[in-house]
């Protein structure tokens, strides 16, 4: 008999979509998999050298629970440069990916019965972790506003139980980037209503339009004492498997995180820590530039293929590396049938007829969305999207 808590979560929908793609490929079909939340790229040379050097030196012991001091200092410097404020090592915790940073945040900030505002569509781990912490996710719809939350909608969702808001920009799955006005509005609300802001900027390096991504603490320094910045090397260095991320926030939160992490994973993998440190100390930024230009090219290829869709608006794809399609135009065609259709049906048809794997918006709380990753090899992307457009344009 399992604990009641296990009823609160299931394996992530994106993992399930990846598994369906893999199963179809194993049955002999040639599948173009656009489900992954990661970038197809070689390893950064600085990471490779840093890791090999650490292994050659034969180091093998625990580090400080929330990461080596040298790494936390280097990260504090990085956050300082990014935010234009001074940050110190005792305001930074190194974690096993941003996922652990978010989990730690949920566990040290939330009481049972608290509410956390999460704009929808949302990355599924946000509500899952809130539930595991005994709190309740409250979703605020963004679909009618270009996937950016309206400050008044967030204000209307706040109750006496609200304890925190999740702000994920650039957003997974929608690719939306929140502008300064929205961020200032959200920050002011947090101050007025005494709320925490969990600011996830894991995709912050990938902005494809002029209105740049801004850390909320830079544009509203008064919000810093109630903000936790969550970031990771997973996306910015195409390093998903190395499991290295970080959390920056007020010292007392970081100390609580340290105590919690000392009972869960202890320190993040030592070799990954050394690799990240070597990168922070020695990188000239060329790997990041290469990654950004690779993604910018893939985005252009993808947008030109998607511009031939007849009943689906071309996505803005402002940030990150996802195209998020609003497929409500296709679902409407089936109204009147017995079974209401959702993006799940479209995903199924795409997999079986086009050999293209996508993630259904139902995973993200949106029955009319479809997420396609363009972090894949460019030739695969072009073929996959051409097939996808053919099937969706012929949809009846
Ligand atoms: N935050 C967002 C919005 C994500 O999309 C992801 C991964 O997909 C993460 C955090 C977790 O990243 P990591 O691999 O560093 O745990």
UniProtKB/TrEMBL annotation:
Question: Which PROSITE patterns would you find in this protein's record?
Answer: AA_TRANSFER_CLASS_1
Q: Spell out the Gene3D superfamilies in the cross-references.
A: Aspartate Aminotransferase, domain 1, Type I PLP-dependent aspartate aminotransferase-like (Major domain)
- Keywords from the named record: Aminotransferase, Cytoplasm, Plasmid, Pyridoxal phosphate, Transferase
The record's CDD domains line, in alphabetical order, gives: AAT_like (cd00609)
Q: What is its EC number?
A: 2.6.1.-
Q: Which SUPFAM superfamilies match?
A: PLP-dependent transferases
Question: Domain of life of the organism in this record?
Answer: Bacteria
- What is this enzyme's catalytic activity, as reactions? L-aspartate + 2-oxoglutarate = oxaloacetate + L-glutamate
List, for all copies, the residue spans of the domain called Aminotransferase class I/classII large. Answer: 30-388
What are this entry's molecular-function GO terms? L-aspartate:2-oxoglutarate aminotransferase activity; pyridoxal phosphate binding
In the record, the note on similarity to other proteins reads: Belongs to the class-I pyridoxal-phosphate-dependent aminotransferase family.
Any idea what this protein is called? Answer: Aminotransferase
Q: Tell me what organism the protein belongs to.
A: Sinorhizobium mexicanum
């Amino acid at each position: 008999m399992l604990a009641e808590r296990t009823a609160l979560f299931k394996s992530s929908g994106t993992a399930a979509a990846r598994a369906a793609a893999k199963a179809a490929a194993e049955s002999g079909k040639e599948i173009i998999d656009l489900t992954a939340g990661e970038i197809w790229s070689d390893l950064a040379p600085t990471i490779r050298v840093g890791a090999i050097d650490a292994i050659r030196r034969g180091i093998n012991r625990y580090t400080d629970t929330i990461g080596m001091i040298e790494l936390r200092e280097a990260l504090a410097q990085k956050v300082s440069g990014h935010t234009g404020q001074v940050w110190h090592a005792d305001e930074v915790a190194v974690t096993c990916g941003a996922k652990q940073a978010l989990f730690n945040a949920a566990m040290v900030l939330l009481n049972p019965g608290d509410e956390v505002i999460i704009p929808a569509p949302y990355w599924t781990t946000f509500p899952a972790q809130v539930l595991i912490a005994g709190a309740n996710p409250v979703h605020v719809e963004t679909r009618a506003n270009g996937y950016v939350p309206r400050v008044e909608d967030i204000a209307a969702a706040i109750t006496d139980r609200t304890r925190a808001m999740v702000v994920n920009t650039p957003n997974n799955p929608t690719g939306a980037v929140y502008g300064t006005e929205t961020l200032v509005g959200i920050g002011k609300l947090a101050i007025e209503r005494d709320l925490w802001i969990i600011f996830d900027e894991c995709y912050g390096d990938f902005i494809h339009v002029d209105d740049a991504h801004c850390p909320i603490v830079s544009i509203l320094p008064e919000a810093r004492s109630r903000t936790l910045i969550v970031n990771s090397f997973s996306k910015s260095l195409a390093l998903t498997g190395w499991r290295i991320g970080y959390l920056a926030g007020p010292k007392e939160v970081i100390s609580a995180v340290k105590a919690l992490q000392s009972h869960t994973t202890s320190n993040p993998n030592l070799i990954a820590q050394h690799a990240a440190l070597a990168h922070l100390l020695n990188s000239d930024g060329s790997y990041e530039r290469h990654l950004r230009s690779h993604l910018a090219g893939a985005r252009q290829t993808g947008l030109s293929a998607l511009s031939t869709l007849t009943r689906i608006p071309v996505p803005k794809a402002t940030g990150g590396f996802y195209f998020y399609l609003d497929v409500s135009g296709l679902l409407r065609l089936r109204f009147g049938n017995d079974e209401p259709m959702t993006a799940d049906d479209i995903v199924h048809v795409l997999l079986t007829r086009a050999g293209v794997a996508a993630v259904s918006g139902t995973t993200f709380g949106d029955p009319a969305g479809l997420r396609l990753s363009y972090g894949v090899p460019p030739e695969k992307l072009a073929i996959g999207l051409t097939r996808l457009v053919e099937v969706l344009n012929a949809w009846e």
